[in-house]
Amino acid sequence: MNQRRTFLKTACKPIVLATLGIPLIQACSTEDDSLENADIDSLSGSAPNEPLTLDLSSGSFAALLEVGGWLNYTAKNILLVRISEAEVRVFDNKCPHQGNRDKWSYNGSKFTCGHHNNSYADTCSGSLTCYKASLEGTILTITF
Ligand code: FES
What is the largest CA-CA distance in the chain? Predict the structure, then answer.
């Protein structure tokens, strides 16, 4: 009996009415659901729209001080590679194959996704989504 009361208190009203033989078309949604969805969207990895500025001289980005250095900055979902003294290229780290964002490696001209070993050129005309990046000294500004 207590289980039935608990069910009736916690179940979506349309479901309760349907179990009683009263059909009703209504989504079982509340405003709280939309807040949860917004939170999920912000965690799902879409790149921020505002420009991002990184100081390459800080320890976390030191790999980008050397030509050929690269890193997968998972907090911002971007792959970065130092192409030359004057250029750092920045890509969305979402694999074009199935969308995984981890297990990247770099061989000096291509990124390889370790999930199925597909490789992608480090050019902005390839399959990886390329973002505009400008480098002034050790300050890198990325525009999404
Ligand atoms: S998900 Fe990257 S190669 Fe398949």
Answer: 74
